[in-house]
UniProtKB/TrEMBL annotation:
Keywords: Coiled coil, DNA-binding. It comes from Paraburkholderia gardini. Residues 155-182 are annotated as: Disordered. This is HTH merR-type domain-containing protein. Residues 98-139 form a coiled coil. The keyword Signal does not apply. SUPFAM superfamilies: Putative DNA-binding domain (SSF46955). Residues 9-77 form the HTH merR-type domain. The keyword Transmembrane helix does not apply. It comes from the Bacteria. PROSITE patterns: HTH_MERR_2 (PS50937).
Length: 182
């Protein structure tokens, strides 16, 4: 069956042109499971008006900044006709969409926290390696190992003296405002 035989069906190129996107965009959304076009006997993708409406919804959501995961959640929910012949999500659908999106935000927050912890660990490791690199470079430049080790130990002691102990830090956080105990 060709698009000429069934004027209601469009090829990828025609559908993409009508939606003002690339054929690759339509194929990508299909790969993501957002749209499932019919296939001709020759296995060509064919899009009907419902597919085009679905693509238009996806493109509107993307233009509003929604993620593909968020769009997938919204597309699972049915639209209901309202006054003026327009379709809208029901209150129940909106509640379900909200809950699904909130779960995704929570999961992203957890990933962000994990990434921050990892970043801090990497920064600490970099600082240690930088100290080691400095030591090796200075040794190669002919400085005395004993003098360098003494400088390094002195620097560590100064740093440790500037950093409050974890017990002292916890106590200072618990102090009440206005507590100026002498």
């Amino acid at each position: 069956m060709s698009s000429e035989e069934s004027p209601n069906l469009l090829t990828v190129r025609d559908a993409a042109e009508r939606l003002n996107v690339t054929p690759r965009t339509l194929k990508y959304y299909e790969e993501r499971g957002l749209v499932t076009p019919t296939r001709s006997e020759g296995r060509y993708r064919l899009y009907d008006e419902n597919d085009l409406e679905r693509f238009a919804r996806i493109l509107r959501f993307r233009a509003l900044g929604f993620s593909l995961q968020g769009i997938t959640e919204m597309l699972k929910r049915p639209l209901e006709p309202v006054e003026g012949g327009r379709n809208r999500y029901s209150t129940q659908s909106l509640l379900e969409i909200r809950d699904a999106l909130a779960q995704q935000v929570d999961a992203l927050d957890a990933r962000i926290d994990s990434a921050r912890r990892e970043l801090k660990e990497v920064q600490n490791l970099k600082a240690e390696l930088s100290d080691d690199l400095d030591y090796v470079q200075r040794r190669l430049a002919g400085e005395s190992a004993d003098a360098l080790l003494e400088q390094r130990n002195t620097a560590r002691l100064k740093k440790k003296a500037r950093t409050p102990s974890s017990a002292a830090a916890r106590l200072s956080k618990k102090a009440l405002p206005g507590d100026d105990a002498a």
